[in-house]
Amino acid sequence: MKIQFTEREEKAFRKISEAAMQLGLPCYLIGGFVRDKILGRPTKDADFVCVGDALELATLAAKAFKPHPKVSLYKNFGTAHFRLSDGFDLEFVGARKESYQRHSRKPDVEPGTVEDDQKRRDFTINALAVSLNKEDYGNFVDPFNGLDDLKQGLIRTPLDPDQTFSDDPLRMMRAIRFACQLKFRIYPETFHAIKRNKDRIKIISQERITDELNKIILSEMPSIGFKLLYDTELLHIIFPQMIELAGAEFIEGKGHKDNFYHTLQVLDNVAERSDNLWLRWAAILHDIAKPATKRFEEGHGWTFHGHEVVGGRMVPKIFNQLKLPLGEQMKYVRKLVELHLRPISLTKENITDSAVRRLLFDAGEDFDDLMKLCESDITSKNRYKVNRYLQNFELVRERCKEVEENDKIRTWQPPITGEIIMQTFGLRPSKPVGIIKDAIKDAILDGQIPNNYEAAFAYMLQKGEECGLRANESGVRRQETGEAETSAE
């Protein structure tokens, strides 16, 4: 068996092979490129290992390409990299062998053979190499039967898995990530080694752990990865709040669903609808507060009142804990968690336009993502019930579309700003300013006053008087000339 390279790849590899031959350095393609070519997955970069000086090889090889790519040399690590004009990334490393100290994942490195280099790889499917040497160009170098593992869909370590995972505990996360992305099975001995060595994950930085977790979340079926994280008990260490969702409790014959597996189903449902990482995080966290809000009510059963509000408050803490970004992405996830029950209330009869306007205003530009989350939250095995809910949500979409066309609420801002309130009453930024501003917004959304400047200004004066405030002369003049000043702003 030989890999069929594309014309672009073949030209590039021949040039690298010739450069290696000039320098007398055995050279091999290795790792993910080889794996993905065999599996028929897209490839955008290639790694090369040579027995000798990788920096010298990369520098000479780059001269064979036109235009000459800029070579990045990393002397401390013995690696080099350049990118071809068509975006194809090529990375070079000298063959090496590694040894680890137990307290660290940074290895002691020394030069080695290509087999030494394959031994240090994480899994057999990533240890596959293809010769670029003249005498056996295109032949596989496969000392650990990686080809067989690819055919059988197995994740297995080249050497003793306990040693592999103790040396670099991040490999436990990578094993699960590859199993999830490729839909492979983890070899039993390898699986049990992950469980035995799970506590070693604590020496890995949170940023590296979260990077692997996000790759699992972005896979086609993220639940595969989360189930493996749960079964190996890694999830108990890296994301204990999610573990608390697991299990169903029964009292007086009444039980609630297992919210861990419900969450995984919602996550898979969202994954079918969107590639948005943060929408997928909203799916993971939408019910995160159910354990904290769970109550059993006599004659009624289990309740989770306010879990969306409590969950929203948990989002910043979890993002901080997992070293996820605390800016717009966090605010987006928190908003969807807090709003995820609102659309279902709009499926009831006699819902007012003001309720629809409020949802549109609160969701803003994220309304469509909110609806995807709500539709994904239907996990019943009863197809009739699922279809009924989906039909109801379609009616919500239509109702919201009608109101949006009339009121343009999703991009709407109240006609009275905080600056106008402060100028009118001679205030500094303070609590009364926020109270009056919110009152004007609520009055317009609830249909109490028209959505125009004059009505909003008059209502502002009324609310100010209720707060014991008096408009100054400039405020009164502003009321008389309000529209002109508003347009000028």
Automatic annotation (TrEMBL):
Family from the record: Belongs to the tRNA nucleotidyltransferase/poly(A) polymerase family.
Short name of one Pfam family: PolyA_pol_RNAbd
Lineage: Bacteria, Pseudomonadati, Bacteroidota, Chitinophagia, Chitinophagales
Keyword Calcium: no
Protein's GO biological process: RNA repair; tRNA processing
Domain Poly A polymerase head: 27-156
Domain (tRNA nucleotidyltransferase/poly(A) polymerase RNA and SrmB- binding) ranges: 184-242
Keywords: ATP-binding, Magnesium, Metal-binding, Nucleotide-binding, Nucleotidyltransferase, RNA repair, RNA-binding, Transferase, tRNA processing
Record protein name field: HD domain-containing protein
Domain HD, first and last residues per copy: 260-353
Gene3D superfamilies (UniProt xref): Beta Polymerase, domain 2 (3.30.460.10), cca-adding enzyme, domain 2 (1.10.3090.10)
Species assigned in the record: Flavisolibacter ginsenosidimutans
